[in-house]
Amino acid sequence: MANEGRGPDVGNRRTRIAATASAETMPPHPLSQAIVLFAHGARNPDWARPLEAIRDAMLARAPSTRVSLAFLEFLPPTLAEAIDLLVADGHAAIVIVPIFMAQSGHTKRDLPALLDAARTRHPGLSIRVATPIGEAGPVVEAIAAYALNCAAD
Length: 153
Hints:
Blueprint: H1 10-20, E1 33-39, H2 49-61, E2 66-71, H3 79-88, E3 93-98, H4 105-121, E4 126-129, H5 137-152
Parallel strand pairs: 1-2, 1-3, 3-4
Helix pairs in contact: 3-4
């Protein structure tokens, strides 16, 4: 986008995120499992950049894996939109990876309600929810190592 690197451009950024939602990865494989990185979202569209970087790192390691982003609010696509797109593309199983540091109202109340609605819209869809990243052992270890390295610099 023409404005990239010069500060937020909400309209263009939202358009780019929404336009790339269906082209984030390789073509779908029937019955394959897709991954959705689900985060809160923010009014500043630059907030999504770290999630885009995580998605890109995942695709570099596993290029045939379908990885989508979804946001609770403010940024597109919503979780419902991401799930609907994945189902339309032929995915029958989805793993939701909450990009939250801990269990919270969003992961305890909002996420289950959103998933119940998705299961109603898509009977037979397999949806599994991973542990929020901040409570996942490998992530905790990586953060600990990073923090210790910061102190050593």
